[in-house]
Amino acid sequence: MSQANRVGKQNARERVLAEKIARQRAERRRKQMTIGGVVVLVVGVAAGVGIAVSAAKHNSAPYSAPVAAVVDPVAKSDKATGIHVGSDDAPVKMNVFEDFRCPVCQAVEQAVEPTYRQYVEAGKLQITYHPARIIDSHDNGTGSLNGANAAACAQDEGQFLPLHDLLYANQPNESTDPWSSKTPILAIADQIPSLKASTAFQSCVTSGTHNGWVQSNADNFNKLGLPGTPTVFVDGQQLSFTQQTPAAILQYFQQQLDAAFQKDGGKAGTKATLPTAPSSAPSSGASSSAPSTPSSSGTTSGAPSTSGSSSSTSGSTSGSTSGSTPSSSKS
What we know:
Layout: H1 3-30, E1 34-35, E2 38-39, E3 41-45, E4 48-52, E5 69-70, E6 82-85, E7 92-98, H2 103-121, E8 125-131, H3 136-139, H4 143-156, H5 160-169, H6 182-189, H7 193-196, H8 199-207, H9 211-223, E9 231-234, E10 237-238, H10 246-263, E11 299-304, E12 310-314
Parallel strand pairs: 7-8
Antiparallel strand pairs: 1-2, 3-4, 5-6, 6-8, 7-9, 9-10, 11-12
Helix pairs in contact: 1-2, 2-10, 4-5, 4-6, 4-9
């Protein structure tokens, strides 16, 4: 493919994503959601709108953390609510509070994922993910819970990031909750051969093994008073996504990572191997009505490395951006 064609395709993807974000903002402005007398706060995040609630929908499932879950100082909890991706000696630490049904989380992922994957591969960045169930609280749903539990089950199998990517690529429309059934989630996971072949994974998803862990993340999200999903911290400083286009979001994000890297001494830690994940084309069981442009890299978080962090796997792709492209040191 010629350079001109590649640029044209990239520009077209950015226009589609920018239009999607604009539609989401317009829709949010038209409505204020009230659940059981509790006002759901509409918060501008990442050129779109995240959702914050004063109380997460609760369940009484026992707490069972996935393999290699970690205690995260940013989360201010003594429970192991985080999933590490990247090397422990990476100088920059990023913390992500997310909901797999959140359309703005998807938009941010599509805008910045290839870049942060490169930083992880280069040994510059370690990410701690906190999947939670925020949207469930405003539509009385269970899809966010089921999606996050499935991601935790995939972590048990060393496949957190591939499923993380596929869930966003196959995200259903926010106004519906097809993931209240676990069948479409399992259909999405079937794109990852090792998960399709794992009876332990299937059982973990269907039985909701990590539901209590997901709920703990949601409870902690509200205890911290976070404004909405996604909420992203870099070296403990919360990022403020107010940009209007994917390109502007990416530029801001990369500037923050580069500034943190230089502030932390400019020396990368151990490189991480990030193999390519399966194609993230929408699964037939996904009921996705949002644009399912795959995040340009699929990643896998393998079993814990000797340092205690998850051995990440991901393929950073040609969607990665210009500017301070990471050297061979970290994400």
